[in-house]
Structures are given as structure tokens and as C-alpha cells.
Specification:
The complex is a heterodimer of chains A (about 60) and B (about 450). Helix content of chain A is about 85%, strand content about 0%. Chain A has about 60 residues and is an all-alpha fold. Chain A is built from three helices and no strands. Chain B is mainly α. In chain B, helix 10 packs antiparallel against helix 12. Chain B has 20 helices and no strands. In chain B, about 60% of the residues lie in helices and about 0% in strands. The chains are: A mainly alpha (about 60), B mainly alpha (about 450). At the A-B interface, helix 1 and helix 2 of A face helix 18 and helix 19 of B.
């Protein structure tokens, strides 16, 4: 189990480093964040809705 | 080989001779070459300089230095002195007081180191712990020369001051020095002459042959030096050139105590002895068949090594008879099992299995389900990333947008993977913990009889 943990952590670390590098490259080359939100959440409204739901959940927890 | 090369090589090889003898010898060959019509033919007929130097060395009898008074001993009595053992050295003939001796020349000015001597010197210097560069220099300078009457072991012992022979050599030299200081020839012209004293003194201790008459007058300074450095005697006791060196090594194996002809060249006292020894040496030296000095050393070591273990390795059965008889080895008792064997209680076991299935299995499922939402959350994140990647391919066309979305997706995917793995790990750990630590342990305690019942 410890070995699996090491493997998972290494893979996660690699993904984060690679993804961060790609994202930074994209931002420096003029990528649009709005377009990225549309890709992940379908539209701007869906994204705002998700954000509101999360804020409510955090507020209920507190 | 031309004339210059021939003469230069011959002069170098005749370094063991005294300067006046060498000059005379060289002048003789120069005159021969001058008188010859065809120099090359004459050189070829003379043979190689080495062969020529060997033949000269065999017939060489040193002459006193021009202008000095030859020693007084009677030539007629010399052969007797040489053959008969003379335990005590004869007193030196009275003569004029010797002037202060000149310091002996350096060895490398007079000594020629042959290949065999070089190899021997290298081995000995390395055995003495010298670094390679120093060993090469020492071997080239002739500091370690093979002595047919000494084995390598003895030389090492002497050098380290452990052998008995080394301290003995010094007093012998002191005595010699005392008897010789008043001799006629004033100065130690050649270290080779002085060196032979050390050689002869060492031989006088070891060999059966009597110490030769050593009334040389030109040895006082070198003797004093030799008395201080016994090892130097053994080292420098081979002052001869290339030729005589292997020749002396070969016969000395059979006659270890016999004097070498070139060593007896110091004074006119020993001329007759040298001549007689030279005649006894037999055939002329042959370079191709003569053994190298290394062979002499190895032979000496072999003889020593054969003798010593033979004396030590003597089997004495009495030593073994006192040993107690072997006791029979008792077989070890079988190791006790860590857990005593206990009898299974079938009825209790059946009831426990039933209750464990009814109670334990749902609890295990519930514990496993604790981690499932987390696992699903992580999986959902990964699924979202996959969906985003698919829509990214269809909707985006700019490299910057693709790069940003892909990078963000990778980071989110990594986080989702970590969350999913954490959920999976929680499920597995909780399930295994419940089953192993609770269900199995409790069943072991319940289903088997107590320890007192079984044992």
C-alpha cells in the first residue's frame, strides 16, 4: 500500500507540474479564461451557479 | 657497430676496473683498431663489447696504482692462504702511513646495472616499500644488487636490522679497517675495491672458505663506510660490469662460499687467489645460457622456504592424544510453537460465522462505503477533465486556449486522482481493519478452546 501511495503521489505531482506549465504557457500566449470556463462548465451561468452552490455549502458548514 | 660505439660501450662495461687498468685496456684496443686495415672486420672478430668485457674481466688482475708501493706479502704463500681456511685475518703489513682517504666515488659513476639487476632491484625496492618512482631510481643506481650468497629474505632482514648477520658484518669490517689503515696504497680510488671487502667479509662469515688476505691499503675509507652500513656491503658487493655479474651468479649456486673472481681483484695479495678462482670457474660466460641474478635469489628463497616449514610442520600425535574425546552431539529439542494448539469449538464457530455474516458483513460494507463518496468525487473530477478535454478538441482552435485548458485539466486531473485514490485507500483500510482486527481476532478467541483446556 505504501508503494501505491508513492506511485500515486509521483503521478499527481507530475500532472500538477505539467498542467501548471501548460496553463502558464497558455496564459502568456493570450488564452481566454472565459473560454476555459465555457469549456469546463458549458457556460458562464453554469459556472456562477456552481460557485454559488459552493458558497452556500461553505456557509452552512460554518 | 662502428668504432666509436664499440669503444664507448667497452669503456662503459669496463667500469669495474681501476682507472689505470681500464685506460691501458682501452688504449690497447684503440691501438689494435688503429693498426687494423679493416676496423669493422676487427670489431666483428672481437665480438660484442659485452663478450669482450667478460673475457677481460675473467682474466683481469688488478695492478697497483702507478706510483704507489705494491703490498709486501709473498706471492708464494698466497695460494695456501687462499685455499686453507684462515679464521683470523692476517695483520696488515707495515708500511707507510696512509694519507687521508678520498671519499669514494658514487656508484653510478662506476657501476653498470644490468637488466637482471634492474629487475631484481625493482622487486627488492618495492618490497622495501619504496614508491615506484623511487624504486626505479634505486634500481638504476644499483642500490639493490643481487648477491648470490644472500637470499632475498636475508637481505630484507639485514636492511630492516632484524637479521643477526647484519650486526656481525659491521665488527668484521671494523677489524678489517683496523688492520688495513696502515697499508701502502693511500686512497680508495675505486669504491668497487672497497666494496669487495664487504663482500668478502660477509662471505667469510657465511662460507666455509677462509677469509682471503685483505691487505689492501686503498680500502680504509670505504671500509669505514661499509662498517657503518652493512647493507651497503651486500648491495655494493657486486661492482662488476654486465659480463661478470651473471657469470658469478651461476657458479655460486653450487659454491656459495666461493669467492668470485672479480671480487678478488683488489690487491696484489689476492691476485693469485683470483687467478686460481678464475681458472676454477670453468667455461666462459655465455649470455644466452647464464641465469639471471633473479634465479639466484629465487633459488635461495626456495631453499630457505623449503627448510623452515619442514622444521616447523612436524606432526606430534601426543598433542592430539590429550584432547578430550568427542562428545556426542545431542539433537536439539524441537522449538515450541508460538501459539499452543487449541481445539476448535464447532458449535460456537458455527454460531460465530452466522453472526459475523449477519453483523460483520454489513458493517464491513458500511466502512467500505465511507470511502466510496470520496472515490466517486475524485472519479467525477477526472471525468469532468475528460469531458473538458473532449470539448476542448472540438471547440477550441487557438493554441493558447488549448494550452490553458489542457494545463488546467491536468492539474485538476491530478487533484482528482489524488482524491480518488484517497477514497479507495480509506475504503480498503477500513474494511481490512474491521475484518482482520475485529472479526478474525474475535472469532479466534471465541471459536477455539482456552489454553488451559488444550494443554
Amino acid at each position: 500500500m505504501k508503494h501505491i501511495w508513492k506511485f500515486v503521489l509521483i503521478v499527481v505531482l507530475a500532472l500538477i507540474v505539467l498542467g501548471t506549465a501548460c496553463a502558464v504557457i497558455g496564459l502568456f500566449t493570450g488564452a481566454s479564461v472565459e473560454r476555459m470556463i465555457e469549456v469546463f462548465f458549458g457556460s458562464r451561468e453554469t459556472f456562477e451557479l456552481v460557485i454559488q452552490l459552493l458558497e452556500q455549502e461553505l456557509a452552512s458548514i460554518r | 657497430m662502428n668504432r666509436q660505439k664499440f669503444l664507448a660501450e667497452l669503456s662503459r662495461l669496463l667500469g669495474f676496473m681501476s682507472s689505470w687498468d681500464r685506460d691501458a685496456e682501452m688504449n690497447r684496443y684503440i691501438e689494435m683498431l688503429d693498426a687494423a686495415e679493416d676496423e669493422e672486420a676487427l670489431i666483428e672478430s672481437l665480438g660484442t663489447p659485452t663478450q669482450l668485457a667478460i673475457s677481460v674481466a675473467k682474466s683481469y688482475t688488478p695492478t697497483p696504482r702507478p706510483g704507489t708501493q705494491p703490498p709486501e706479502p709473498e706471492p708464494a704463500s698466497e695460494p695456501d692462504q687462499a685455499e686453507a681456511p684462515a679464521p683470523e685475518p692476517e695483520p696488515a703489513p707495515e708500511s707507510e702511513p696512509a694519507p687521508p682517504p678520498e671519499p669514494p666515488k658514487k656508484r653510478d659513476e662506476l657501476q653498470i646495472v644490468t637488466d637482471g639487476e634492474f629487475e631484481y632491484g625493482m622487486e627488492l625496492a618495492i618490497l622495501m616499500g619504496e614508491p615506484i618512482s623511487a624504486a626505479v631510481e634505486s634500481a638504476l643506481n644499483g642500490e639493490y644488487l643481487p648477491d648470490p650468497d644472500f637470499s632475498l629474505e636475508e637481505i630484507l632482514r639485514e636492511t630492516r636490522g632484524e637479521a643477526d648477520g647484519a650486526p656481525d658484518a659491521a665488527p668484521a669490517e671494523d677489524e678489517d679497517t683496523g688492520t688495513r689503515t696502515g697499508d701502502a696504497v693511500p686512497e680508495a680510488e675505486l669504491p668497487a675495491e672497497a666494496i669487495t671487502d664487504g663482500q668478502e667479509a660477509d662471505q667469510s662469515e657465511q662460507s666455509e672458505e677462509a677469509e682471503p688476505v685483505q691487505t689492501t691499503s686503498d680500502e680504509s675509507a670505504a671500509d669505514a663506510e661499509n662498517a657503518e652500513q652493512p647493507m651497503a656491503d651486500t648491495e655494493e658487493s657486486q661492482p662488476e660490469a654486465d659480463g661478470p655479474e651473471p657469470e658469478q651468479a651461476a657458479p655460486s649456486e653450487d659454491k656459495p662460499g666461493e669467492l668470485e673472481p672479480a671480487e678478488s681483484e683488489t690487491t696484489s695479495d689476492t691476485q693469485a687467489e683470483a687467478t686460481s678462482k678464475t681458472e676454477e670457474q670453468g667455461p666462459v660466460f655465455d649470455e644466452s645460457t647464464a641465469p639471471l641474478p633473479d634465479a639466484v635469489i629465487s633459488t635461495g628463497n626456495d631453499e630457505k622456504s623449503e627448510d623452515k616449514p619442514a622444521a616447523e610442520l612436524v606432526f606430534d600425535p601426543d598433542n592430539f592424544a590429550e584432547l578430550p574425546p568427542d562428545e556426542p552431539i545431542e539433537p536439539e529439542e524441537p522449538a515450541e510453537p508460538g501459539r499452543p494448539h487449541r481445539a476448535l469449538r464447532p458449535v460456537v464457530t458455527a454460531v460465530y460465522v452466522l453472526f459475523s455474516l449477519i453483523i460483520g458483513l454489513p458493517v464491513a460494507l458500511l466502512l467500505i462505503l465511507v470511502g466510496v463518496p470520496v472515490l466517486l468525487f475524485g472519479g467525477g473530477i477526472i471525468a469532468l477533465v475528460v469531458y473538458a478535454a473532449s470539448s476542448m478538441i472540438t471547440e477550441l482552435s487557438m493554441f493558447s486556449d488549448i494550452s490553458l485548458v489542457a494545463g488546467t485539466g491536468l492539474v485538476i486531473c491530478g487533484v482528482g486522482l489524488l482524491i480518488a485514490w484517497f477514497g479507495l485507500w480509506v475504503s480498503v483500510e477500513l474494511g481490512s481493519l474491521w475484518i482482520n482486527s475485529v472479526v478474525v481476532r474475535l472469532g479466534r478467541a471465541v471459536c477455539f478452546e482456552k489454553e488451559a483446556d488444550g494443554e
